[in-house]
Amino acid sequence: MKTLFKKDCRKGTKAQIYLGLFSVFFSLFSFSQETQKDSTKITELKEVTVTSVRAKDKNPITFTNISAAEIAPRNLGQDIPVLLQYLPSVVSTTDAGNGVGYTYMRVRGSDGSRINVILNGIPFNDSESQGTFFVNLPDFASSLESVQLQRGVGTSTNGAGAFGASLNMQTKSFNEKAYAEVSNSVGSFATRKHTIAFGTGLHNNFEMNARISNIASDGFIDRASSNMFGYFFNANYVKETTLIKLLAFGGKEKTYQAWYGIEDPEKLKNDRTFNPAGMYFDENGNMQFYDNETDNYWQNHFQLHWSEKWSEKWISNAALHYTIGKGYFEQYKEDEDLTDYNLPDFNGNSISDLVRKRWLDNDFFGATFSLNYKNAKTDFLIGGAANRYLGLHYGEVVWTQNYIPNPNRYYDNYGNKDDVNFYTKASYNVTNKLNLFTDLQYRMVFYDATSIKFSDVNDTFRFFNPKAGLNYQLDTKNSFYGYFGIANKEPRRDDYENGAIKPERLFDYELGWKYNSRKVKLSANAFYMRYNDQLVLTGALNDVGSPVFTNSGKSYRVGLEVESTIAITEKLFLNPNVTISQNQNQDFYFQRDGVLQNLGNTAIAYSPNLILANRLTFLPIKNFQVSILSKFVGAQYMGNIDSENSKLDAYFVNDLNLNYEWKLNKTIKSIVFSGLINNILDLEYESNGYFYTYDDDWSNPGTINTIEGTGYFPQAGINFILGLNLKF
After folding, report:
1. What is the bridge-based pairing of β-strands 279-281 and 287-289?
2. Residue 675, number of CB atoms within 10 A of its CB
3. Which residue of 121, 126, 289, 646 has the smallest Cβ count within 10 Å?
4. Helices (H), 447-507
5. Which residue from 77, 67, 66 is spatially nearest to 674, judged by alpha carbons?
6. No. of H helices and E strands in the chain?
7. Cβ within 8 Å of residue 171, ≥6 positions away
8. What Å distances lie between residue 538 and 102, 496, 582, CA to CA?
9. Which residues contact 220 (CB under 8 A, 6 or more apart)?
10. SS3 helix, strand, coil % of the chain, rounded to 5?
11. Residue 430: Cβ within 10 Å count
12. Whole-number Å distance between alpha carbons of 332 and 400
């Protein structure tokens, strides 16, 4: 850690920024003690922690809200991207094939590193990779109160810019009454989840609630096991117009690696659970698998929030946060050159099998604030954040064929990143029907890093991100909105290693209509997202299973999204949504057979033109719910060169979800029985894959041939999870 601080030449400047924000926080707190409290209910403060980064009904933003009650019937152990996969424009996938362990989501074709994720207004994306690893927060869905998914640029938020969507998650606040819950679920592939949660209720202005969870699964894919421990703790001080929240949450996970997929078409057809991770050949030429080819990581989050309602018009929120994480993944490597690891040879032989660990040790901390003024016509907010990330990357060899090496780091690098942003948002009722929205953000990013492939990166980015829009309320049922926003985004750590180091810019245009009646709620929006230097997925993976990106020059996404809730009867409901889009690179250049070619317009990788979802819900009797959930994802290219070899086939999967609550009104208030049958039609499908090319010049000397390769991630056939939840 000394190296990290020593290498950061901006330490003094950034320290002044943090000191200034902290001073504002504590001076406001001191002032609050001198301000006379009124008797206004504290309920309004429950959502202040996310108000500054969430869209409101009158804002011209494309978004979908989902409550904890909507998630609960399917919350049986699968991770957040899987629980949200039925939202518009969302495509989810899992390494293990059954939704437990490493899971991912894309929105409008944008992967997780381009989806801004915040927890109570605090950034969750990893600062360097900009990815989101929900595996580090096992069973986090059990601690959520609500979720908002904004599609497109959306409103200004903290952390990396949204280039496809923003996922804003708010955890449970205080409960006025005491409660306790014991939840257990079991299912296919030895999947199981055990959760205990409780709340003390509000007493003398204090309340505490907590949760501990364990989730484990063998996975659909061979050896794709996971064992995860998660926890959540929340202490609240509630008095009149003041809410102070202290949160601690996190988890520890051990998952067997399953990020290599299947390349062999024969195995994909006849051995769909095959996992090449950890594969090696013994001295007799027999195939073996290393039993500890695992990913191991723990992460703890600490947040302190203070919300204050100063008057009927003024509300403020300030927060301090700190996240600490450390972990490694272990790999068995065949026929490695020991000199590449700074190790001595053995009796003149430098080639050896070995086991290595690649470590990440990081700290992330900072402060956020917002101040909101609201009257009958105006809703004005000013906010911002200052965050620092300190990351240490290093590798160790722990075993070789002929000797156990002394503790040795064969690489030792760091990545430091400072992120400061300020924004103002204003919503003004020009008339009773017309609302004007503006949002201006200024963001500064300072990145200082070293790596194996590059050295002494010291970049500064300054971004101005304006947004504006109109919302027109035609009548009590119909409203229309128009929106324009600009977003800028810095490269990730891996982009520097791959030479794609241009910052990106997005121009987002949205035009929408909302209809709301007693039986039908409908929203439809058209979008046009125009990019400069978009970092698109090439389809390839690096040596640790992470996707590789390249700058595509000019590109765009244009489409139509429609979602609705339809009450067919009092007991039968439909929730369909559809996304129709075209996603294109313009004048995309690719070197084929040794010649750089302009391929013209090509499809952007991992961007299907058609996505459909539906939830059919039937309520046959009181407290009993039956849902059929359907998802169709159209064919998509896994690369950007429109190669037929890179096509991922369309798929259509259906799940059945049952939920019944037996209310007792005794010591046990109720018992909830849940059941989830995934993929009820037992479809064989792949929701993700990879595509790569390389130049072959040895088979025909004097010529260069571009060779294409693919791999796929099979998903489980029909499988089930059953749950039992006791509420006290």
Report:
1. antiparallel
2. 18
3. 289
4. 493-498
5. 77
6. 7, 41
7. 119, 120, 143, 144, 145, 232, 234, 247, 249
8. 21, 15, 18
9. 96, 97, 98, 188, 189, 273, 714, 715, 716, 719
10. 10, 55, 30
11. 11
12. 10
The token pair that represents 75 in the structure block: 């919350």
Residue 188 neighbours by CB under 8 Å, 6+ apart:
98, 220, 716, 719, 720, 721
pLDDT, position 618: 96
- The token pair at 431 is 């008339």
| Average pLDDT by stretches of 10, the chain with 728 residues | 37 43 40 39 64 85 94 95 96 96 95 94 94 94 95 89 89 90 97 96 94 97 97 94 95 96 92 95 92 96 95 94 97 94 92 96 96 94 96 95 90 94 95 96 95 79 96 96 96 85 93 96 97 92 85 94 96 97 95 89 97 97 96 97 95 98 90 97 96 77 81 97 96
> How many angstroms separate the CA atoms of 357 and 351, rounded?
18
Domains present along the chain, CATH in parentheses? 2-727 (2.40.170.20)
Which position has the token pair 């320290």?
Answer: 15
Which residue, chain included where needed, has tokens 């009820």?
A: 680
Q: Residue 526 carries which side chain, given as an amino acid letter? A: A
pLDDT given at position 42: 58
Residue pointed to by tokens 């990145």: 447
Query: Which one-letter amino acid corresponds to residue 641?
Result: I
The residues, any chain, with a CB within 8 Å of residue 167's CB and separated by 6 or more, are 84, 115, 116, 117, 118, 132, 147, 148, 149, 150
Rounded Cα gap, residues 505 and 532, in angstroms: 5
**How many angstroms from the chain centroid is the CA of residue 680?**
27
498: three-class secondary structure by DSSP = helix
The dihedral formed by the CA atoms of 95, 98, 104 and 108, expressed in degrees to the nearest 10:
120
Residues 6+ apart with CB under 8 A from 75: 83, 141, 142
Residue length, the chain? 728
- Distance, first Cα to last Cα, the chain: 46
Cβ-count burial 136-172 (b if 16+ within 10 Å, e if not): bbbbbbbbbbbbbbbbbbbbbbbbbbbbbbbbbbbbb
Dist. CA 250–CA 299, nearest whole Å = 5
**Identity (one letter) of the amino acid at 98?**
N
DSSP one-letter string for 243-294: EEEEEEEEEEEEEE---S-B--HHHHHH-TT---TTEEE-TTS-EEE-TT-E
> CA torsion 216→220→224→226, rounded to 10°?
-10
User: Could you tell me which residues come within 8 angstroms of residue 22 by beta carbon, excluding any fewer than 6 positions away?
Assistant: 320, 367
Rg from Cα positions in the chain: 26
Count CA atoms within 13 Å of residue 378 on its CB side. 8
Tokens describing residue 51: 């108000």
Amino acid sitting at position 456: D
Taking the C-alpha atoms of residue 21 and residue 366, their distance in angstroms, rounded to an integer, is: 9
The pLDDT, as a whole number, for residue 463 is 96
DSSP labels, 375-432: -SSEEEEEEEEEEEEEEEEEEEEEEESS-PPPS-EEEEEEEEEEEEEEEEEEEEESSS
Residue with tokens 């961007």: 607
